[in-house]
Structure formats: structure tokens, C-alpha cells
């Protein structure tokens, strides 16, 4: 039955054994400065994947990969002796690209920060090419009234402002008409006299 906890413990032990064997037991001149970064063991304890990094260029990585491949049997036998498991897991070596990718990402972030700093320096004393505020503002009601009626609002057809009663809705129709004597005209109620209220 699969036991993930046992697989994790075995992975830690395999990492220690392989790292020690690469340091002292493997005498292949092709092997460069190899660091074992991680080991993953399947839950059934049959396969182990060993992740490693190599200090150096691509040629040294290739040479180290070939050295690890040729020393796989020796390393597996040492893992079997050191762990004492019934079935020694097979070893698969994979170059760990995570540190290289992290370095590449750090380099990209540093370059982006330098470009941002240069752009901020250029922008610091820059002035807009046009107006300070090039965006159009929404028109106000007062501006529309000024354009439609002009500056003199009082001289339109002799009609003054609407009576306060009309604005509140209590006495709709009562208006100042500027007639003789300043009399107010009220609409006739049904059957009533239009002159009432003078």
C-alpha cells in the first residue's frame, strides 16, 4: 500500500546518499560541480527522480549529465545498501532548471527596474505638450442658459418670472403678465367668473 510519508522520508535519505556518493564515490572526470537539489519518490517506492544543478556552462551540464547516467548503477547500489529497502528504487536524473529560471527572472526584474528609473528621471521635468488639462469638461446648466438666452434674460417678450404659487403647484396658471395696472389674470374655474380675485 502506498505511504506518502514513507516516500518522503526515503526521498530525504536518497538525497543524502546520492550527494555523498557524488562527492566521494564517483571518480568520473566529466562530473562537474553537481548539487542535488531534490529527490521525489513515487508512493510505491519503486522510482526516484533526482533533481540536480551543475555550476558552469551548457557543455559542463552535458558532460555532468553523461557522467550521472553512466554512474547510475553504482549510485543505485549505494542507495540500496544505505536505505535497506526491499526493492531499491530506480534512479532518474533530471537537471533542475528552477535556480536558472529564478536567476533569469531576477535579471529581468532588475532590467525592468533600471528602465523604470530612467523613465522616471526623464519624466521628472517634463511638461505637457498642450494645455495643462487637455480633457473637455462637461458643460454646466448656467453656461447653456447663457448661450441660449444671452446676457439679458429680463427683456424676453415682457414676461417676468413665474409666480411662486405656480412653482409650488398650488395655483398653477397664475402669472404676471405686465398688463395695465399690474392686475393678475386667473383662469376661470368651471362656471366661474374670470375676473374674480382682482
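Q: What amino acid sequence fits the structure above?
A:
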Amino acid at each position: 500500500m502506498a505511504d506518502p510519508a514513507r516516500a518522503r522520508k526515503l526521498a530525504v535519505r536518497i538525497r543524502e546518499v546520492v550527494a555523498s556518493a557524488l562527492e566521494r564515490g564517483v571518480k568520473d572526470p566529466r562530473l562537474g560541480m553537481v548539487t542535488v537539489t531534490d529527490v521525489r519518490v513515487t508512493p510505491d517506492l519503486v522510482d526516484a527522480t533526482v533533481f540536480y544543478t551543475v555550476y558552469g556552462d551548457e557543455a559542463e551540464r552535458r558532460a555532468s549529465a553523461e557522467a550521472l547516467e553512466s554512474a547510475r548503477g553504482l549510485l543505485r547500489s549505494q542507495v540500496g545498501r544505505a536505505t535497506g529497502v526491499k526493492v531499491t528504487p530506480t534512479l532518474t536524473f533530471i537537471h533542475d532548471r528552477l535556480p536558472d529560471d529564478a536567476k533569469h527572472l531576477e535579471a529581468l526584474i532588475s532590467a525592468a527596474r533600471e528602465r523604470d528609473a530612467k523613465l522616471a528621471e526623464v519624466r521628472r521635468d517634463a511638461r505637457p505638450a498642450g494645455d495643462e488639462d487637455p480633457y473637455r469638461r462637461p458643460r454646466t446648466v448656467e453656461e447653456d442658459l447663457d448661450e441660449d438666452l444671452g446676457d439679458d434674460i429680463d427683456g424676453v417678450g415682457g414676461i417676468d418670472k413665474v409666480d411662486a404659487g405656480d412653482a409650488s403647484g398650488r395655483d398653477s396658471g397664475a402669472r404676471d403678465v405686465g398688463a395695465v395696472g399690474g392686475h393678475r389674470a386667473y383662469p376661470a374655474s368651471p362656471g366661474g367668473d374670470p375676473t374674480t380675485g382682482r
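Q: And what stands out in the fold?
A: The chain has a mean pLDDT of 76.
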